[in-house]
Design a protein that fits this description.
single chain, 330 residues, alpha/beta, Peroxisomal Thiolase, Chain A, domain 1, 5-stranded mixed beta sheet, 4-stranded mixed beta sheet, 11 helices, 32% helix, binds acetyl coenzyme *A
């Protein structure tokens, strides 16, 4: 417990214009609209243009989040970007976003935790606010996974979309109803090979062979990940509820990572929370990895589904393997 409380001050999001439907995918690989809908819940996803990189999407979400807040640009004291599809291996995408925003002399760094990236970034950010180091942090989840998708692999290419979501996290005043109540992040590196971009790092530097073997694209053993996803998201969510003397009935909204509708439904059932309290937008965006949660939150807040004072539970699972949850009063 720190000296202060952190709160979600505002959210913003962005998705590229171009939409790829299940019918479009039927023309690319041996798949059907019916298979994709029933096995994943996905109907369409947004795709970045050749000119759009992670920082471009991140910048738009950042502007939308800052404009929705009471915080001025100059009052942002730190930028954290969660991504596994950065503009470049280095410099960090957060430094590029900092430049685009015209901000200087504040720390900016990236987090790599796959689809759990936004949860990891928020867990880190709240420490800086709760111990009094900073008052306002810009946290962004951004992904352009379609740039590292293997368009010959029907097991994965139907799943991913591009988007960004951002929040301004601020110190909560004593009079504020909003606060982050608790958070928990976790990892199991022993299962990392089931979800990996194998080449392009120091293990397998880029070469003609790695490109020919498609090793710069996402490789995923989906059914192994599936089982872990439900178990892990439930475990961290359940622990957060228990240690705060809450249960499923106290939750107004669960905002789960949008990887698969069947995972979301299984999680809701295990948590004994009706689907009417679960935020779902997977049909419109597919799996946008670290962007799914802030994107879903932004949409739900702007449509006035989620309101100030609601108890929200965010939970995710992804490459690493990593998982984690955040319990907050919005
Ligand atoms: N169209 C038609 N058939 C397909 C497709 C497709 N697009 N993809 C796979 N199939 C086939 C397979 O070839 C297989 O056929 P077979 O039985 O003849 O071998 C069959 O469908 C079943 O394949 P499974 O992989 O067992 O299908 P499953 O029900 O597990 O669904 C999916 C696959 C959707 C990937 C699911 O496992 C899933 O959602 N996993 C979790 C993904 C996840 O949470 N990832 C973490 C976040 S991602 C990140 O961090 C970047």
């Amino acid at each position: 417990m720190g000296y202060y409380f952190a709160k979600f001050e505002s959210f913003g999001s962005f998705a590229p214009k171009k939409i790829l439907t299940n019918q479009d995918l039927e023309k690319i690989v041996d798949t059907t609209d019916e298979w994709i809908r029933t096995r994943t819940g996905m109907v369409e996803r947004h795709i970045a243009s050749p000119e759009e990189a992670a920082s471009d999407l991140a910048y738009q979400a950042a502007i939308n989040a800052i404009e929705a807040s009471k915080v001025r640009y100059k009052e942002i004291e730190m930028i954290i970007v969660a991504t596994i599809s950065p503009d470049h291996p280095f410099p960090s995408t957060s430094c590029i976003v900092q430049k685009k925003l015209g901000l200087k002399n504040i720390p900016a760094f990236d987090i790599s935790a796959g689809c759990t990236g936004f949860i990891y970034a928020c867990d880190i950010g709240r420490q800086y606010i709760e111990n009094g180091t900073v008052n306002n942090i810009l946290i962004i989840g951004v992904e352009v996974l379609t740039k590292i998708t293997n368009w010959n692999d029907r097991n994965t290419c139907v799943l991913f979309g591009d988007a960004s979501g951002a929040c301004v996290m601020s110190r909560a005043e004593p009079s504020d109803i909003s606060r982050i109540i608790d958070s928990k992040i976790d990892a199991d590196g022993s299962q990392g090979e089931f979800l990996i971009q194998a080449a392009g790092g120091s293990r397998l530097p880029a070469s003609a062979e790695t490109v020919a073997a498609n090793q710069h694209t996402v490789y995923m053993e989906g059914n192994r990940i599936f089982k872990n996803a439900v178990k892990s998201m439930y475990a961290s969510s359940d622990e957060l509820l228990r240690r705060n003397n809450l249960s499923g009935v106290d939750i107004d909204w669960i905002i789960p990572h949008q990887a698969n509708m069947r995972i979301i439904e299984a999680l809701a059932e295990k948590m004994r929370v009706p689907m009417s309290k679960v935020i779902v937008n997977i049909h419109k965006y597919g799996n946008t990895s670290s962007a799914t949660i802030p994107l879903a939150l932004d949409e739900s807040i702007r449509s006035k589904k989620i309101r100030r004072g609601d108890i929200i539970l965010l939970t995710s699972f992804g490459a690493g393997l990593t998982w984690g949850s955040i319990l907050a009063r919005y």
